[in-house]
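[scheduler] slot 2 assigned
[scheduler] job type: sequence-to-structure, two independent chains
[scheduler] chain ordering preserved from manifest
[runner] begin chain α
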Amino acid sequence: MLERIKNGLGWRYQQFVEPTIDLYGDIPSFVKYQYQLKTKVLKHKAVYIYANRRNIGDYISHLGVREITGIQGGELYCSKGGHKDLLAYLERCREKGVVALIGGGGLFQPAFELFWNSLLASKVEFALIGVGVNQMAGRPLLPRELLSKVVQRAESIHVRDNFTLEYLQTLNEAEITLGVCPSVNFINRSTHGQKGDSTNTLLHVVHPSDLRMSGVSVERLRENLRQFCKEEGFCYRESDNMGTNVTKAIKDIRSAALVVSSRLHGCIMSYASNTPFVPLYCDKKTEYFVDSHTDKKGYEAVQFQDMKFTRGVLKKELTEISSYSNVQGVLQRKIKENYDFGESLRAKFF
């Protein structure tokens, strides 16, 4: 009951409050964002544009973009709550020759259509970094014509998976670089590429709304995972990967014995820190990441409604030393490729 009340309040906040005033996770984050609008956005040669910092996945992707480019710059949010500020600064960015480095969040969704039209109209030069397409029943993409214009106008494009690469190439014959999500670079540097001290914990990274859209009972899924933990002597912990505490989110992933995630960045963060993880598919973007960058097997989230199936998969995962081949060698190569792309941006614009 408490979970339903929490989700209901969260939905009402997103629908009725957030479009007008978004605190971006907490009041300090709101104040910090407003302050940097006045002190950073027009003071540097680059501005970083992403959804906002309320979602760990969005924010850590942005931190990864900063990591691979190594360029100083302010931030603009392109979610509904930040659009007023975005419009106020885009024109001034163009006048001052500020380049927009865009990445972080599912920006190819209709919710961001106003942002993309505003960006194109502003004539600001921009690069797309770590972007990805998501397909999910009930959640359409941007109109093809608009997305084609975005691809055509972008000075550089870096995508996070094979599907996005192929889809964007059907829209426009642009040169596109394939790489892993830039958040991997940030995590690798901040943790020195080392696995954390593992605890006897199963961490469930959950995306309640997407799970329900795909026909999954979150309560049943949670119950099955708790039952497995009880049988095997694990401690069950849960995260929705929302908030502003990136350090804690990374630590929770690194210290888990196993991560079960229906969120894309629950999987990406596990991959970056070499933590065993089980991907649960309730959308396509997670499947695209797994297929593009690992040898892992993912599962439709609805399959985990069955306790016997759940038990079998998790036991198998825990007995395997590594779920994808040569993980460290492959990971370090992908990290270097991302840094190489960042270097190409610096050479091109700065």
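[runner] end chain α
[runner] begin chain β
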Amino acid sequence: MTKYLIALGVLIVAVVAYFIFAPATTPPSSESEPVTVAPSVPEPVPAAEAVDDDTRLEQIAADTRENLPSALTDTLTWTDALFLPRMRIMEYSYVSADTDAEPSADNLRNMIATRAETICLDGRDMFEMGTTLRNNFETSNGDLIDRVYLLPEDCLRFY
């Protein structure tokens, strides 16, 4: 019987100690002063911004590829869009149905030159990330006729 009394005493001491030493869990009353929270310190921007830009440019290429028009003119068809991250080049490929390659190349270069302002303004986000636009013009056999570049520096005059 003594051991039961000792056990009961220990239990009572434990319960009393719990209520004495346990933190109060009562919620603050509505009349108490408002709690001020210290402003959070902004987290530093990770150094992987280039990766994010590459991801955005990959998405631009993928969106462009999905929405390619079947034919731009009666002799020119836009066939592909691709982003080359190492070279920071957005590459668009066109196929010409013309049989004579040299006049076709001249026409294609003139088309890029006359539409440069529209191309630069439409792709401003891309050019501001330092990406070069490369236009490949090919014959229907897959032979490269010409390659025309539009550099970010070329577009600065239109902004």
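[runner] end chain β
[qc] chain β: The mean pLDDT is 79.
[scheduler] slot 2 released
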